[in-house]
Amino acid sequence: MMDVHIASNANIAKITLHSVPDKPGIAAEIFGKLGAKGFNVELVVTSISYKGRTDVSFAVAENELDAIDTLLENMKGEIGAERISRTSSVALVSIAGHELAQTAGMAGRMFNALSKAGVNIDTISTSMSSVTCMVAQDKAKEAVEALRKEFQA
């Protein structure tokens, strides 16, 4: 059985830049400016491009939301975003393991465990070694408990 680690961060906000031009360098511009100002981004998800535009969502520390919001409002015209939406009071829960990508069914097990616990998933991001879900902040504890039970972690 694979060794799975559970991680969570319950102090998160989600920002979505809507209808950003889908072109080379746009992500570098957005996240380069955030990084240059000292802001850490924990998760990035983009939607499928439609008519040359896409949505870019990302997670940041909830206590930095106002400062990041000000920066993004100033950048909005430069990057061509049509609008910006914000959601506070969300959390990230993740499963991670060295062989996660080579082990079939791990994401499905995670999603099933969260579903059984009554935890709705807002956003999903995967990598070779982890699966992360954004959930409501008030459901973070239940989510972590469900994942610990499912993966005996």
Write out the strand line-up for the largest beta sheet, numbering strands in chain order: 2-3-1-4-6-5
Name given to the CATH architecture of the largest domain: 2-Layer Sandwich
Fill in the CATH topology of the largest domain.
Alpha-Beta Plaits
Note the run of SSEs as H and E: EHEEHEHEEH
Strand content: 35-45%
Domain module count: 2
Please give the share of residues in helix: 25-40%
Structural class of the helices, strands and pairings?
alpha+beta
Can you say what the CATH homologous superfamily of the largest domain is? ACT domain
Count of helix runs: 4
CA-CA gap between termini: 11 Å
Q: Sum up the overall morphology in one term.
A: globular
The low-pLDDT segments are none
How many strands appear in the DSSP assignment? 6
Word description of this protein:
The protein is α+β, with helices and mostly antiparallel strands. The protein has two domains: 5-9 and 90-151, Alpha-Beta Plaits (2-Layer Sandwich), CATH 3.30.70.260; 11-89, Alpha-Beta Plaits, CATH 3.30.70. The protein contains four helices and six strands, in the order E-H-E-E-H-E-H-E-E-H. A six-stranded antiparallel β-sheet has the order 2-3-1-4-6-5.
